[in-house]
Amino acid sequence: MSVNQAQCSELIAPIEKGLEQAIQASELVHFDETGLRVNQKLWWLHVAATDGLTYYFVHPKRGRLAMDEMGILPEFEGKAVHDGLQSYQGYDCEHFLCNAHHLRELQYVLEHYDQWWAFHLSVLLVSIHSQVKVLKTQGKTALSAQDLAALSARYDAILEQGLKQNPMPPPDPTQPKKKGRPKRSVPRNLLERLQTHKAAVLGFMHNFDIPFDNNQAERDLRMMKLKQKISGCFRSEQGAKDFCRIRGYLSTLRKQGLDVLDALVDLFSGSTRSLLPQPE
Q1: Which helix (H) or strand (E) segment is 38 a member of?
Q2: Are 125 and 154 in contact (CB under 8 A)?
Q3: Interhelix angle for 186-196 vs 99-113, to 10°?
Q4: Are the CB atoms for 26 and 53 separated by under 8 Å?
Q5: CA geometry: angle 239, 243, 249, nearest 5 deg
Q6: pLDDT grade, residue 273 (50/70/90)?
Q7: Higher-confidence position of 230 and 159
Q8: Scanning 6, 52, 212, 234, which has its CA 20 to 30 A from the CA of 129?
Q9: Under 8 Å between Cβ of 242 and 5
Q10: Strand order in 28-38's β-sheet?
């Protein structure tokens, strides 16, 4: 790493702390994680993002330990949008799930198990999303109580159809009883998750401020994956951390419509402008 990059990372450090605090105070935050190669080992790049702020955190682990050390979720009291990784569920905030992930899983069930309940649920989710978008363009903020009840009932009916098609296998009396949760099929696992987390799946239907998917976080991770694809893994832990700090700063600049070159000149001249908006 060049001296300029190291200097830049050092200068951004206090700004990054402010970004972390601003995201933690935001009303709605997107979270995601993806694999990252550091010194030829698999690490994990975590992101917490809003439409105006980006914070990256690199760690050897993917789950709860990394999320705790990242420092945002332990004190976060807003609405968290994520892909349903179990580690997120342990935090005391409102959870909302990415329906783009659900659509991909439902497509898999349809193609590999030929189960049409998955198609019907995909159509329902997309139809609700389209209905919400139309209402939002009309300046409305909610579906009618009648529509909410009908759509919720339709969701339940499709899941019931799927559960009947994927019953739990009866225990085999010839086999020793195993500890823990009995094994489920892929469709059964998905059905139970969609049923258990119904409120998190359909949050966008009840509150128009909740997004349908987690595309904000996925977009913020895309460039990082592209960088790794082009230039390979990071050679050191510090190099990865410095790159993530600088990238989070630049991403935030762009989201806020600030000129990147001007901001970097300000940074090195010691007259850094504030990047932080009021919490959402």
Answers
A1: strand 28-38
A2: no
A3: 150
A4: yes
A5: 150
A6: low
A7: 159
A8: 52
A9: yes
A10: 54-59, 41-49, 28-38, 79-82, 94-97
Both tokens of residue 21? 């605090």
CA–CA separation, 27 vs 256, rounded Å? Answer: 17
Beta bridge partners of 96: 81
Q: Which of 49-53, 58-62, 174-178 has the lowest mean pLDDT?
A: 174-178
Query: In this structure, how many other beta carbons lie within 10 angstroms of the beta carbon of residue 178?
Result: 9
Which pTM value belongs to this model?
Answer: 0.91
The answer for residues whose C-beta is within 8 angstroms of residue 84's C-beta and 6 or more apart is 97, 98, 101, 193, 197
Q: What are phi and psi of 51, to 5 degrees?
A: -75, -5
For residue 29 the two structure tokens come to: 């935050």
CB atoms within 10 A of CB 49: 27
Report helix, strand or coil for 243.
Answer: helix
Pairwise pLDDT comparison (253 vs 5), residue with the higher score: 253
User: Which backbone phi and psi does 80 adopt, to 5 degrees?
Assistant: -105, 125
| Range with lowest mean pLDDT among 69-78, 161-170, 227-236 | 227-236
- pLDDT at 261 exceeding the cut of 50: yes
Tell me how far CA of residue 272 lies from CA of 8, 256, 267, in angstroms.
12, 15, 5
Neighbours of 62 (CB within 10 A): 18
Distance CA 181, CA 193 (A): 14
Cα gap 14→237, rounded to integer Å:
20
Which residue shows structure tokens 């700063």? Answer: 249
Confidence bin at 1 (pLDDT 50/70/90):
very low
- Contact of 95 with 207, CB cutoff 8 Å: no
Closest CA to 185 of 160, 166, 162: 166
Strand partners, 47: 32, 56
Report residue 180's pLDDT band, with 50, 70 and 90 as the boundaries.
low
